[in-house]
User: What shape does this take?
Amino acid sequence: MTHPLQLTPDGRLRHLLTVEGLSRPLLTDILDQAERYAGQPSSNRGSSGSRGLKVPLLHGKTVVNLFFEASTRTRMTFELAAKRLSADVLNLQIAASSTSKGETLLDTLKTMEAMQVDMFVIRHEASGAAHFFAQHAAPEVAILNAGDGRHAHPTQALLDMFTIRRHRPDFENLTVAIVGDILHSRVARSDIHALRILGAKEIRVVGPRTLIPAGIEAMGVTVHNDIDSGLADADVVILLRLQKERMVGAFLPSTGEFHRDFGLTKARLETLKPDVLVMHPGPINRGVEIEGDVAYGERSLILEQVEHGIAVRMAVMGMILGDEGAAA
Ligand code: ASP
Assistant: This one.
């Protein structure tokens, strides 16, 4: 069951809060729309990209980026996406804004609505923040979740699916291993939902017991506490950063030990399928979950993921706010 708030009565996107429960046709439609913006795949990986692309779809609309947590890729690609769709884009500098003076989220929302904003892109450390915004937003205002606590990061999952699909559209044959700090990762949750919706053959979560949430099997995944069994025959490996900012207390003896037991090293990569795809949402911690050579090596799609973030975010914004969109 998708979040009831995020769809219109006729099933179109109104907000994007989570991928959980999106229908396969709707999710596929988002990926197809993103293809229109992403440029042709090129032979040496990556694509000709959306460089220089400018379409008037959101001309006259105003998009505000509200990032209460650090971000490089997500914030910048949301901004680029909105600009390529010809929207006016504002970035609220939280540290220099009234939220640092104690203004509540709700008051910030209402203040900005008075400036006739059409869409908020919100990242917040509290799980449920985007949902809270969507509940209280005026009917003509759309909310995009750019990451809420450990709950969801829907556009990351969509760009991950887009990237996988460009190389391996046969989801029903794919074994995908998600490795590392599953417990604190909104990307893991959103990727698991998206992979299930697209019918992936097998989804594994791989990591130390302390970093795997109890009962996660209910999401339709298998749990591996040993990297070698977790990665055996995997077609796609998605590595995750240790989310130290969300860890209260000690979850690991040391990052060195984590690297030894769960890091993707060159030597370990050589034991995997020769055509395995290596992914990471970023930011990477070299020498912890991934070796630097692997991050920018032959099998890595990490920079493609970044690039595809623009096209996927353009697709979502266009579907919600564009002429044919629901909230227009
Ligand atoms: N950038 C991703 C996120 O915001 C992953 C990470 O921070 O490790 O969740």
In short: The pocket of aspartic acid is lined by residues 147, 153, 186-187, 241, 243, 281-282 (CB under 6 Å). The first strand starts at residue 62 and ends at 67.
